[in-house]
Design brief:
The protein is α+β, with helices and mostly antiparallel strands and 118 residues long. The protein is built from four helices and three strands; from the N terminus they run αβααββα.
């Protein structure tokens, strides 16, 4: 079991969480805990989304009109807010994903091949 203190777990860079939330919601409607779990699973337990960061990010994305929220019932029969990606959110996802891919490629070029010593 991977814990928060696991040295192999990475801290999310500023702005990354919004992108990951938008990407996760591209797959469909989800509540907050489901979003956090999906990000953790898709990252093979490297990324852990803290509730203290998740819910302010969801509120921020909703305020920008990139996601919409409505109350519903979760699979364990609890009341929860479910989030969906809006049309503007889909556009933002495309733009942000493109920027992150460009930046990741540029950083990889600066770092050089794996195992190369400086």
């Amino acid at each position: 079991m991977v814990t928060q203190d696991d040295p192999d777990r990475l801290t999310l860079l500023q702005g990354t969480l919004d992108l990951l939330i938008l990407r996760t919601l591209r797959l469909g409607r989800q509540h907050g805990q489901g979003i956090a779990r999906a990000i953790q699973e898709q990252s093979e337990d490297v990324l852990l989304v803290e509730h203290g960061a998740l819910y302010p990010a969801l509120q921020r994305l909703e305020a920008k009109g990139w996601i919409a929220a409505e109350w519903g019932t979760s699979s364990n029969n609890r009341r929860a807010r479910f989030y969906t990606l809006t049309k503007d959110g889909r556009k933002q996802l495309v733009q942000e994903a493109s920027r992150w891919r460009t930046m990741a490629l540029a950083i990889a070029r600066v770092l050089g091949p794996e195992g190369q010593q400086s």
